[in-house]
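Question thread 4412

I'm putting together a teaching handout and wanted feedback from people who do this every day. The idea is simple: show students a protein as raw sequence, then show them the structure tokens that encode its fold, then repeat with a second protein so they can compare. Below is the first pair exactly as I plan to print it.
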Amino acid sequence: MKRIATALVLIVVVLALVLRGETWMVALACAVFAGLAAYEYRALAHDQDVYIPLWWLLGATATIFFFTIRLPDFELPVLTLVTFILLAWSGFRAPINRVLMDTALGLFGLIYIVYPLTLLPLIRSHEDGIGLLFFLFACVWCGDIVALYVGRNLGKHKMSTLSPNKTWEGAAGSVAGSVVCGMAIYYLGDYLSGRGYTALHIGIPAWQMVLLAIVLNFAAQLGDLMESAIKRGAGVKDSGTLLPGHGGILDRIDALLLAAPVLWYILLLKDWQGLFR
């Protein structure tokens, strides 16, 4: 019951923010989630005798969000700058044999957690952005829910040692759940658009949206497995305890961390080459 209540509250807050909030509000919320998830990642790294300074991690998160949203052309130089700051700071700390590991894992935290979440407000500000974000969330969340129930009731064939509870049956159910729920959002947007409400409309052919749902589901499942690998390497079950019944923030956004960049790259290809024309 605690797990369901937490999930419902989060879903309502996120969807209301995307639908009714300004882009800067979405960016601020994403930055907060990124900071909390990065903090959990830092704790996992510390368990492996890697030290990432908190002032650097939170400062780098805020800086990257600011430049990605306001001055995206400076994103790579800023990422390079904050990495060199961490390298220099680590270089003056003992023991010297930890400099490379501390810097590398600090940079990985930014690429793995912070950068993907900066893409959510960018997607929202894109053409049909609200509908695309709802579609993304539906593919990720519904796929995860269906995988859980199908895996528990029908799962017999284990999928990976990275996550012993995952089965191929659950994975197949996840794909089906993403397609069904994603297309429900698509057709809802189509229906509402015909009645004058265009916020959820997505101007992409239906068959291409089916393919997109499948691709996003694959990315989401891979993102889930990637976080499982990190946690198993750190010897923990959950990334944190912030969300009752769910573990940590990182546990809840792991699938989104890969699915969001995949959607963004597809949108870039669409704009560049007219992929969906």
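The second pair follows. I'd like the answer to focus on this one:
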Amino acid sequence: MKKLIFTLISATLVYVNADAQACGNSGTGVCTPSGTLTEPGLSPLSSDLASVINGSSTPVDIQFKNFNTFVYQGINITINSLKIDSITNLPAGTCWATNKTNNTWANQEDGCIKVSGTTCANPGQYKLRILVTANTSIGTIGPNLDAETVNLKYFVRVKNNGDADVAVDTNQTAAFVKVAGYSANADCSVGINDIPANVSALNIVPNPMNSQAIVSFMAAKSGNATERITNMIGSEVYSNNIDVKAGENTTSINRNNLPVGIYFYTIVEGTNSTTKRFVVAD
């Protein structure tokens, strides 16, 4: 448990790196700390976390308790506070938020992280990367302290509906690994086009695109949202905040330096998101 808490709080979805995969709505209403952990650690362990189903929107709450002390570069130090800067390599279409608006917890304080959204990602195992800033008895360590430096890891599995479960491979070193027994390609026919509370009729023209495409969608009400582009292994390649008006909305996306391939455009509003697959071609 001690290893895995520092994984999820010190090894990676947008607060340091232009909100890489954050939902943008951290606060007390996101999730509720259970208060049941008696020592620093995560719950559930990555080996007990159910696989994410492509095309299915099922929020996951991850509980944790902050450290009192931990060993860093051979020195036993006391944690005053710990801040999650970024969690990346979440499956495409998902994002993270916490129960603290500043994503910061005091010594031994209980917290929680909610991962939400509808994923459409390559079936396999993803190694999350969590970056943090630690305020300690020897000063501030970070920002972007990576738990890989202390060999701490946390994994998420993605599969298609109907794929049999496989055990988590805790020896994985790559960001993404295809899993024997899972489907070769993502099947997002179930739920990926479900309409969240506000946004509907998401479309991208042309698709495939060469240099630029127009994104259009309908919104039931005005507000703010985040548009995000992720690649097939769930890595974010673009993120931008946009204003949404009630009725029809249009915006544009540019290829820039994106290589030829399959991508996913997601509009995130709070805990709701909708995703459209598109292709970049020469």
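Top answer:
Good format. For the second protein you could add a caption like this: The chain has two domains: 2-177, 199-280. The two ends are 48 Å apart (CA to CA).
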